[in-house]
Write a structure and sequence with these properties.
Layout (H helix, E strand, L loop, with lengths): L2 H14 L3 H14 L1 H8 L9 E5 L5 H9 L4 E6 L2 H10 L1 H5 L3 E5 L12 E7 L8 H11 E11 L8 H11 L6 H10 L2 E9 L4 E8 L15
Parallel strand pairs: 1-2, 1-4, 2-3, 4-5
Antiparallel strand pairs: 5-7, 6-7
Helix pairs in contact: 2-5
């Protein structure tokens, strides 16, 4: 492995769990590097002013900040198992933290520190790749969602022949897996979600997979944009 690949591998592993000074830099860079796919992904769901929202794997905290600006009468939480990410995200959201509108917590998707039916919306941007037990972790997310609540998995890569060489290289270096649209649909279904919608931008290899907990026509989060 050459020096460039070694550096790329180090970066991918830091994306999994930022540590140290380099990890702090990576967490900050997430706020810019993920901004476009995040904006596109969030455009696939409607967010109400009073919503309670959780962003899992919150990284540098920009997604939390964006969500808090929309859910002005609710509260937005971010959670990450990296102490560095929690510190960076807390700095990014200092104004909202001081106002009591945002809370950033150290924790894992394996055991979320929230009661059943707490959230209207749970997001995960470029994070699901690193879930240690995907189906059970999705079930844990479903537990903390209200009836009618929504999960949105927003990612910059999915299985597609056009991008397979690039994606396989990144996945190998980062020791993670990734899925096709059909596989996204299956894992969400296996975790107990319904009304599953898959949105893709094929030219960019972006995907947003959305599922809803139970059937509740009074609390829909889906918009009418183009779907897979």
């Amino acid at each position: 492995m050459g020096p460039i690949e070694k550096l790329m591998g180090k970066m991918v592993k830091q994306c999994r769990k930022p540590t140290g000074g380099f990890g702090r830099l990576i967490a900050r860079s997430m706020n810019y590097g993920h901004s476009k796919v995040t904006r596109w992904g969030l455009s696939q769901v409607s967010i109400n002013e009073e919503d309670m929202i959780l962003d899992i794997g919150c990284g540098g905290g920009k997604t939390v900040n964006t969500l808090a600006k929309t859910a002005t009468e609710g509260k937005t939480y971010g959670i990450d198992y990296s102490e560095i990410s929690v510190a960076v995200a807390s700095k990014t959201n200092k104004r909202f933290l001081d106002a009591g509108r945002v809370e950033i917590l150290l924790g894992s998707v394996e055991s979320l520190p929230f009661s059943d039916g707490f959230f209207d919306l749970v997001t995960a941007v470029e994070a699901y790749y690193f879930f240690p037990d995907l189906i059970n972790n999705l079930k844990e997310i479903r537990r903390v969602l209200k009836s009618g609540g929504t999960i949105a998995l927003i990612n910059e890569a999915y299985r597609h022949d056009k991008f397979e060489k690039r994606n396989a290289k990144w996945a190998r270096m980062g020791e993670f897996d990734y899925h096709s649209p059909e596989e996204f649909r299956k894992v969400l279904k296996d975790a107990g979600f319904s009304s599953i919608k898959i949105h893709t931008l094929e030219d960019k290899n972006w995907i947003t997979a959305i599922g809803r907990k139970d059937e509740d026509s009074n609390n829909l989060h889906f918009n009418t944009s183009r779907q897979y």
